[in-house]
Amino acid sequence: MTNTAAPKPASRRTPPTHSARAALTALCLGLFMIVVDTSIVSVAVPAMVRDLHAGLNAVVWVTSVYLLTYAVPMLFTSRLADRHGPKRLFVAGLALFTVACLGAATAPNIQALIAARAIEGLGAALLTPQTLTLITHLFPDGERGRAMGMLGATSGLATVAGPLLGGLLVDRLGWEWIFYLNVLLGTGTLVMSLRVLPDWRPGHARRIDPLGILLSAAGLTLIVFGVQNGRSYDWGALVGPVTVPQVIVAGVVLLGAFVLSQRFTRDDPLLPLRLFRDRNFSVSALITAALGFSMTGMFLPLVLHLQTTLGLTPTQAGLLTAPMALIAATMGPFIGRLSDRVNAKYLVLSGLLGMALGLALVALRTLRDAPAWQCVPGLLLCGLGMGLALVPLNNTALRTVPPELRGTASGTYFTARQLGAVLGSATTSAVLQARSAQAAYLPLILVLLLAGAAAAILRGIGDPQRIPDAT
């Protein structure tokens, strides 16, 4: 049942209402918290090791468990939004995330901190998919790109702010304040969200798919755990005769069983496979996974090169890479408005090619151990490419998806991006163990190939055409 007091989507040519703009502000603040929390913790690792008397391997789990509980539940949480409404899931995720941040800030030991971070990831999984769903509901076609642009700009600014803000807080106040900051921001955003977000409920899903939930959660957990922690076990034995590769293969098999179960589940499957008949969505999901892989695969070896080979401090390395995210964030609103007026295919294609060229320039500079400043042109080109690609891609992904499937589509889309990032991190970690200096930069070559392949695949995006309402 839909709340009749909720603001309804405007017509194609009607500008968004004040209520829609206020709702967009709340969505941006919520996403800002999640993105900042993904990167801000990394700068606090040495302080956590010291203050909590923990080993480095234990502290690594502070990041790993967050990524695990963030990526795995999104298929389920997005389907819940189709059933109960995206506002309720957004508010629940925001509240859970804020309380977990308070638990992390006051954690007396590393075990309590890891538990709090796991709950933070679950809150992020509840919140994140609802941003695209609510924007698609609140804004008409002619204004949606601008809203997506604001969301993209928020994500870019949070990417820059995370490491820099984290460094300042850890140096001046202590690592606990990277979590206290989110408690303060989360409380204010929660109050605002309750007031301005529409209580829109598609009311489509009639039941929960327990087999689908079990298979998808188990499969994703095994894959994410395996690739995220494989390096810690040298990609060998995990427990007794069980090895990391076996765990990953088991996860792939379970995901295959999940897809098969969805094929034969007629009554509200967790992931309706007809969603992938929409080529705009399916191609966008594939490309966002490639982008997640590419950016993670580039960033880790680059930062290690800047610090270990060129001798930059962490702050200097962060300042060098910050303009890349800033230019992407600055372009977000402009590209969002442009994507409402031109074919998004060409914007994304230009962005992918720009990223590929930028990565090639960075790879050439790092292989020659050139001064750090010589990486800046390539990084700026990468930022330009990201700014061109990300917002139109987000807009295209849900453009032709029926309203009753938007929650599921948003969760699947974000899951694809998270899995791409996890796989990029694992691939980079594996290659960095190679003894050859050239092998350490293989991820950059792979990134270039991925960007080129994604640009070719982009030909699959076509004109708006809705998918059927039934299998």
Question: What does it look like?
Answer:
- The protein is mainly alpha-helical and about 475 residues long.
- The chain is about 75% helix and about 0% strand.
- It has a two-stranded antiparallel ribbon with strand order 1-2.
- Strand 1 and strand 2 form a beta hairpin.
- Helix 9 (about 210-230) runs parallel beside helix 15 (about 405-430).
- The longest helix is centred in the first third of the chain and has 32 residues, at about 140-170.
- The chain starts with 17 loop residues before the first helix and ends in a 14-residue tail after the last helix.
- About 55% of the residues are buried.
Main β sheet profile: 2 strands, antiparallel
Low-confidence stretches: 1-15, 463-471
- Number of extended strands: 2
Cα-to-Cα separation, first versus last residue: 24 Å
Q: Name the beta content range.
A: under 5%
Cα-atom Rg, whole angstroms? 21 Å
- Structural class of the helices, strands and pairings? mainly alpha
Query: What global shape is seen?
Result: globular
Total number of helices: 16
Strand/helix succession: HHHHHHHHHEEHHHHHHH
Mean pLDDT: 78
Spatial strand sequence of the major β-sheet? 1-2
How helical, in percent, are the residues?
over 70%
